């Protein structure tokens, strides 16, 4: 049997062992106990939802404060032009080269700008040669010229002509020394689009013609007048007076809401379609995501969503895509002033 010192030593060891067991049990979670309460920061991180809606286009540069109603790039992309009421501006990169007084260039019937490979700039009734000399390039017409477009060896003029039954519209298609005249009736639309081998003119119906003036196809306009027309290859697109985007590739055409208020600008390039409206928003669309049918499978679901957008300070008045870089020039009206921005398109 253990005597005094041995008993004392045994008692001490037992006491230390018991104390160690109790300390270990304090740190060990009990079975079935609830997990520890997360911190406020951890709770906020878990509850945070990813941002909704398409991403915003990146602003690359803020350019001249011009209230532009038309913008156009040269084929190489090194030069571009912007036109406002009565004035045309020529740029190289971000630097303005010259500005020309052009009193016959009217914002109400703003014509697209075209710079060709020879350095010629066409803007409505004008042309600028060598970046130096402005001259009127449109011969006298037999009616009031509402709009003028220029292509490779082609000039389109939309005319309002007095007729026995009242004013009517007429399309003058000039190639070389010959001019074809196509009667358009009493429609008031001025929407035109020009491709290398065809053209489109708004009205009821919308007509697609070859460059000899022969009818290729007709499309019902729908309830609202077309404000903008553009070709995507052989496919015709339209933007109407209440912001609807039309794809004339199905029967009936595909139509979906693109803007709140009238559509004001439409451009095609880099496999994308870009639209602008009076709502001050630029939207970028990927046609590969558009439905093949105008019928929407899910009731109430939008038939298409943009892949990117940009909210400007006021209505979009013009836009144009760079021919090679994934960039976009866009003009906004900000009160009485204008704002020109260069934006980056989303990566492919």
The rounded distance between the terminal residues' Cα atoms is 89 Å
> Which percent range fits the helix content?
under 10%
Order of helices and strands: HHEEEEEEEEEEEEEEEEEEEEEEEEEEEE
Q: Strands of the biggest beta sheet: in what spatial order? A: 1-28-27-26
Q: Can you say what the CATH homologous superfamily of the largest domain is? A: YVTN repeat-like/Quinoprotein amine dehydrogenase
Mean pLDDT: 80
Shape: globular
Please name the CATH topology of the largest domain.
Methylamine Dehydrogenase, Chain H
CATH architecture of the largest domain: 7 Propeller
List the SSEs and their pairings:
Elements: H1 4-27, H2 40-47, E1 58-62, E2 70-73, E3 79-84, E4 87-92, E5 95-101, E6 113-115, E7 121-123, E8 126-129, E9 133-136, E10 144-151, E11 154-161, E12 168-175, E13 178-185, E14 192-194, E15 198-201, E16 206-210, E17 215-219, E18 226-232, E19 235-240, E20 244-247, E21 254-257, E22 263-269, E23 272-277, E24 281-285, E25 308-311, E26 316-321, E27 327-334, E28 337-344
Antiparallel strand pairs: 1-28, 2-3, 3-4, 4-5, 6-7, 7-8, 8-9, 10-11, 11-12, 12-13, 14-15, 15-16, 16-17, 18-19, 19-20, 20-21, 22-23, 23-24, 24-25, 26-27, 27-28
